[in-house]
């Protein structure tokens, strides 16, 4: 065991998702998340409070960024975020998924070209 | 196009408040081919890393107490982002190359526009499982030779042949340490993705 602490933390992370092993909704790692004006319920877990404290009402972060900042594995972060969405505490600005379309690819191409 | 500055607070760089849509590309390739360097180099924010726990059937090492025959290993996932315009942000996920991380792969590939596969000409055969995986998943990809300093420069035609790439698969080269060069490789990929898709009526 070269990194026992990390392994234990990850196991604990699953326990701290309230025993859930799957998110209640389909959430992509790139889905954008914002907080709402709703107040956190008293029974919110430590992980849920950390996620809520991180999220902003005006400026989004992706699910992956939230996972990295609160130091949860993405799978656990997704469960926590999905549950907070179910309770109306977090929201996605638009569609959690956008599919590839000609227009989207044009937009990405133009965006990348403008960065060079 | 100038993008509204994102807001940094306590080490967290939030997106601009006008950004409401996101999309993603994968940066794939075998171990130590330069995926992390590539993502670090093009990302507009400090690249981030999360660690996913993977449960595997144990070979008798690293057993977690109380969970016999199972091993928890972690796989690091590096990612970065690029705000492309006022509304749209692109996430780049460095995708772990090992086939044993297949479940994570499925998850990352879902909804991705495509993948840029970085290859090292000194270890071309190591890219085969990655290309096979992408083809299996039906995820379109372009290939970029990461030009390492000491590597012998192979002509791209030889690389194409060695990798047995389809004629229309774009093949380019880049220096993952150079932002402009890496952005050009991304542009090669997205131009290919754009051209292969019919305009929506």
From TrEMBL, chain A:
<dbReference type="Pfam" id="PF05331">
    <property type="entry name" value="DUF742"/>
</dbReference>
<protein>
    <submittedName>
        <fullName>DUF742 domain-containing protein</fullName>
    </submittedName>
</protein>
<dbReference type="InterPro" id="IPR007995">
    <property type="entry name" value="DUF742"/>
</dbReference>
<dbReference type="InterPro" id="IPR036390">
    <property type="entry name" value="WH_DNA-bd_sf"/>
</dbReference>
<dbReference type="InterPro" id="IPR036388">
    <property type="entry name" value="WH-like_DNA-bd_sf"/>
</dbReference>
TrEMBL record, chain B:
<dbReference type="InterPro" id="IPR027417">
    <property type="entry name" value="P-loop_NTPase"/>
</dbReference>
<dbReference type="InterPro" id="IPR052705">
    <property type="entry name" value="Gliding_Motility_GTPase"/>
</dbReference>
<keyword id="KW-0547">Nucleotide-binding</keyword>
<protein>
    <submittedName>
        <fullName>ATP/GTP-binding protein</fullName>
    </submittedName>
</protein>
<dbReference type="Pfam" id="PF03029">
    <property type="entry name" value="ATP_bind_1"/>
</dbReference>
<dbReference type="InterPro" id="IPR004130">
    <property type="entry name" value="Gpn"/>
</dbReference>
<keyword id="KW-0342">GTP-binding</keyword>
<keyword id="KW-0378">Hydrolase</keyword>
<comment type="similarity">
    <text>Belongs to the GPN-loop GTPase family.</text>
</comment>
């Amino acid at each position: 065991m070269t990194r026992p602490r990390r392994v234990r933390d990850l196991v604990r992370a699953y326990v701290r998702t309230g025993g859930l092993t799957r998110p209640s909704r389909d959430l992509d790692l790139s889905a954008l998340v914002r907080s709402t004006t709703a107040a956190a319920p008293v029974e919110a877990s430590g992980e849920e409070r950390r996620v809520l404290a991180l999220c902003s009402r005006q400026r989004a972060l992706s699910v992956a960024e939230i996972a990295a900042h609160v130091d949860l594995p993405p799978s656990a972060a997704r469960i926590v975020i999905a549950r907070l969405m179910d309770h109306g505490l977090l929201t996605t600005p638009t569609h959690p998924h956008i599919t590839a379309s000609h227009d989207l690819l044009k937009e990405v191409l133009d965006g990348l070209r403008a960065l060079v | 196009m100038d993008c509204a500055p994102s807001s940094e607070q306590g080490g967290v760089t939030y997106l601009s408040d006008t950004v409401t849509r996101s999309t993603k590309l994968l940066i794939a390739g075998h171990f130590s081919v330069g995926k992390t360097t590539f993502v670090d180099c093009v990302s507009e924010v400090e690249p981030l890393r999360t660690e996913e726990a993977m449960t595997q059937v144990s070979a008798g090492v690293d057993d977690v107490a109380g969970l016999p025959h199972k091993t928890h290993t972690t796989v690091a996932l590096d990612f970065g982002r690029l705000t492309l315009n006022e509304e749209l942000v692109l996430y780049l996920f460095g995708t772990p190359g090992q086939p044993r991380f297949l479940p994570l792969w499925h998850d990352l590939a879902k909804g991705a526009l495509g993948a840029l596969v970085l290859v090292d000409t000194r270890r071309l055969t190591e890219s085969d499982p990655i290309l096979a995986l992408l083809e299996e998943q039906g995820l379109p990809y372009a290939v970029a030779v990461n030009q390492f300093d000491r590597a012998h420069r192979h002509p791209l035609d030889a690389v194409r042949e060695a990798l047995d790439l389809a004629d229309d698969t774009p093949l380019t080269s880049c220096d993952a340490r150079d932002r402009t060069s890496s952005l050009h490789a991304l542009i090669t990929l997205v131009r290919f993705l754009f051209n292969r898709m019919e305009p929506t009526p």
